[in-house]
Amino acid sequence: AQTVTQSQPEMSVQEAETVTLSCTYDTSESDYYLFWYKQPPSRQMILVIRQEAYKQQNATENRFSVNFQKAAKSFSLKISDSQLGDAAMYFCAYRSDFNKFYFGSGTKLNVKP
Amino acid sequence: GAVVSQHPSRVICKSGTSVKIECRSLDFQATTMFWYRQFPKQSLMLMATSNEGSKATYEQGVEKDKFLINHASLTLSTLTVTSAHPEDSSFYICSARDRAGTRPGELFFGEGSRLTVL
After folding, report:
1. What pLDDT does residue B37 have?
2. Residue A58 DSSP one-character state
3. CB atoms near residue A55 (< 10 Å)
4. How confident is the model at residue B100 (pLDDT cuts 50, 70, 90)?
5. Is A7 in CB contact (< 8 Å) with chain B?
6. N- or C-end of chain A: fewer Cβ atoms within 10 A?
7. What is the pLDDT of residue B2?
8. Distance, in angstroms, between B22 CA and closest chain A CA?
């Protein structure tokens, strides 16, 4: 079974600074998708960024970018120019060939003004 | 983007009663929906995969007789917690895949439903 590991339960960053959230996963599949989801206090999950495993280029969405290392099975999220609204729980997720999603345990991001 | 709506957002019930939670895809057809359970400060745990027109597929350890799932149409899946007990109190989240949208395979989430069993 696939497992997703987020080793940082909580992180803090100063407003306007950059922070990187770590995620590793374990799989025997060669084709899959990786996602970062954000869960603010309202509790609704919001997609931040996605990465197809077959693409070597790292995905980027405005201030959010990933460092995808397929061989190392690592998928970190970098948030640049952090804003107060970025404060939330961040979940790394893996989507298998069978279209099942597996989530990491989450990282709580605090943004300090 | 695609919208998934869940109702009710909060429900309080007495022990022994049944509670139904609805999950609707508002602007796309979802042949597959997923139900997750989230305990406080924990991750989402997949409970079951709901397939339109067929039986749901439950994850190991999830009681199918307690958590009844019905996916009667391409836009609606329901989760019924039968004979609820306090240990069933949790945050339940549904999600749906948009197979035909601009981002096929992406998972869209409902707002979640907080169940409290007294």
Report:
1. 95
2. P
3. 10
4. low
5. no
6. C
7. 66
8. 15
C-alpha span between A99 and B104 (Å, rounded): 11
User: Is A95's CB within 8 Å of B42's CB?
Assistant: no
Which residues in chain B touch residue A101, judged by CB atoms under 8 angstroms apart? 34, 46, 95, 107
Contacts of A93 in chain B (CB under 8 A): 107
Range A26-35 average pLDDT: 89
Mean pLDDT score across all residues of chain A: 92
A16 contact B CB<8A: no
A25, A5 contact by CB (below 8 A): yes
Count CB-CB contacts under 10 A for residue A91.
24
B97 vs A contacts (CB less than 8 Å): 99
pLDDT bin (cut points 50, 70, 90) of residue A29 is: confident
Q: Is the pLDDT of residue B102 over 70?
A: no
Query: What does the alpha-carbon distance between residue A71 and residue A5 come to, in Å, rounded to a whole number?
Result: 16
Chain A nearest C-alpha distance from B97 (Å): 9
Q: Are the C-beta atoms of A111 and A82 separated by less than 8 Å?
A: yes
Chain B residue numbers with beta carbons less than 8 Å from the beta carbon of A42 are 111
